Amino acid sequence: MWLSVRVPASSANLGPGFDALAIALSRYLVVTVETTGHQQIEALPARELGDGRDLVLEAMQALARLVGKRLPGCRIEVESAIPVARGLGSSAAAIVGGLLAANVLLGTPLTKEGIWRLAWQLEGHGDNVTAALYGGAVLALEGQAGPLARQVPIAAPLRAVLLIPDQPGYTSEARAVLPDQVTRQVAIATAARCALLVLALSTGQFALLGEAMADDLHQPYRATLYPYLVDAIAAARSGGAYGACLSGSGPSVLALAAPDSAEAVRRQLARVVERHHMSAEVTILDIANEGATVNVAPQTSPGAQSTRRGIDRSASTPVKA
């Protein structure tokens, strides 16, 4: 068997939606697995994910343990265009990719919802993994009866403009600067803006995103770690973005714009990079509405062992994740 899993990047929070809102983006992690008929598992993690852990393999093993089965001998290769520790959901993509791959290898013992629940457990929160699995904009929360997630419709086309610093930022550091308590006024404003954000996206009232993506809960504190943040948000808005925010826990900045305004927003963010003497990428991405996908072929495709880009995928059968 040969299979390939493609998982999008994601940006969480979207301003006030701390650990609850996220959106999938058109950069991808790809996991390719080829069964070998031997007992050994050969894992080749992506160099881009070289933080000392192989989250793809860890996720595959976690699913195998959960269902009481053993992974077959196989060769696992991972390629990622999602930079690590930039607030773009690289770990969530790796976990979702590993779970989807293992589920196919083991005969699909889990439903899509089962994969989502396990991904949430492994990641520790549900925003990025939900966006990575289902695509589009999502709302995820720990409800009274357990994890709950729903997709938030996006009523009209949007593009994401991102400022992605070369220097990584770490979630542990970004959480460490947050206060343990906030005022009632901050709690009220955060709840109201989350509601406004869902309303704006689902009804196409994108002019509301400027207010909806503003935040008092975490961004003012994280701005001490990322001194360009306030400037970047203002610059994106001046370039025509509907709204802008820190992407996840940073250090990247996300702006949402109309397709015909995205290039002007990109130019404004490029000027921020120059003003702050940063080394960074400024890019325009689509919203990944499809989420993770799986391609499966019963036999090894020609050239599969050389490179994923050389695989003949015409013989594979697309399967929605």
How does this structure look, described?
With 321 residues, the chain is an alpha+beta fold. It has helices spanning 55-67, 90-105, 112-123, 127-134, 171-176, 184-203, 209-212, 219-222, 229-238, 262-275; strands at residues 2-13, 17-35, 41-44, 74-80, 137-143, 146-152, 159-165, 243-246, 253-257, 280-286, 293-297, 317-320. It folds into two domains: 2-152 and 288-320, Ribosomal Protein S5, domain 2, CATH 3.30.230.10; 159-286, 2-Layer Sandwich (Alpha-Beta Plaits), CATH 3.30.70.890. The protein is 33% helix and 27% strand. The strands form two sheets. Strands 1, 2, 3, 4, 5, 6, 11 and 12 form an eight-stranded mixed β-sheet that branches. Strands 8-9-7-10 form a four-stranded antiparallel β-sheet. α1 (55-67) crosses α2, α2 crosses α3 (112-123) and α2 (90-105) packs across α4. It starts with a strand and ends with a strand. Residues 301-321 have low confidence and may be disordered. ATP binds at residues 83-93. Keywords: Amino-acid biosynthesis, ATP-binding, Cytoplasm, Kinase, Nucleotide-binding, Threonine biosynthesis, Transferase. One of its GO terms (cellular component) is cytoplasm.
Features:
321 residues; alpha+beta; Ribosomal Protein S5, domain 2; Alpha-Beta Plaits; 10 helices; 27% strand; globular; disordered C terminus; amino-acid biosynthesis; cytoplasm; ATP-binding; transferase
Describe, in short, the structure shown.
The chain is α+β, with helices and mostly antiparallel strands. It is built from ten helices and twelve strands. The strands form two sheets. Strands 1, 2, 3, 4, 5, 6, 11 and 12 form an eight-stranded mixed sheet that branches. A four-stranded antiparallel sheet has the order 8-9-7-10.
